[in-house]
Design brief:
This protein is an alpha+beta fold. The protein contains 4 helices and 8 strands, in the order ββααβββαβαββ. Helix 1 crosses helix 2.
Length: about 180
């Protein structure tokens, strides 16, 4: 599993580590209102210590081969997170999750990072299936798997509890045999 994935000349993903704690906290603090609309964990992340604990658990999941959590770097600036989560090496499957600083949205960054992590999952981890879940009302997040050629499989009814209400999630997937890098 790669510690760093170079996406292009200026964009990379670096495995999350303790030295990212303060910057990650500041990035979420700056984007709190934007992120909390769709992400259930945002309101629980209120201090640097919360992020330190999260990074510790992320590193444990990495050691157990169940997660590859990255920070997204534009040159030397952290602009978001993306990872392979719920990695199941027996069933050869995983899920992708992501978020981005509001200022960097609309530039194709998440799509490019997803391509790179999908390649990593299919080639290095020998996965067969990768999925992305997006709230049925989150059109911007749905555009990512659709742009990447994922198949929409269905809806998980009330699949996530966000802002004191349950939201339905679309499930998208791509199989290794279907994966061809979209342009």
């Amino acid at each position: 599993m790669s510690v760093k994935i170079n996406v292009d000349n200026t964009l990379s993903m670096v495995l999350i580590d303790y030295h990212h704690t303060e910057t990650l906290y500041q990035l979420v603090k700056l984007n709190r209102l934007h992120l909390r609309v769709w992400l259930p964990w945002v309101d629980q992340m209120r201090s640097v210590d919360d992020f330190r604990k999260y990074i510790n658990s992320s590193k444990q999941r990495y050691a157990n081969h169940t997660e590859m959590g990255y920070v997204i770097m534009q040159n030397d600036v952290m602009i978001g997170r993306l990872g392979l989560y719920n990695i199941d090496l027996i069933n050869k499957s995983a899920s992708i999750g992501y978020w981005l600083d509001k200022e960097w949205m609309g530039k194709g960054i998440i799509t490019r990072c997803c391509k790179a992590v999908i390649d990593e999952g299919f080639s290095h981890l020998q996965l067969n299936r990768i999925e992305i879940r997006a709230a049925t009302a989150n059109v911007k997040s749905q555009a990512i798997p659709e742009r990447l050629g994922f198949k929409k499989e269905g809806i998980i009814r009330q699949g996530e509890f966000v802002n004191n209400e349950f939201v339905d999630l679309y499930v998208y997937s791509v199989l290794k045999e279907e994966w061809k890098k979209p342009v």
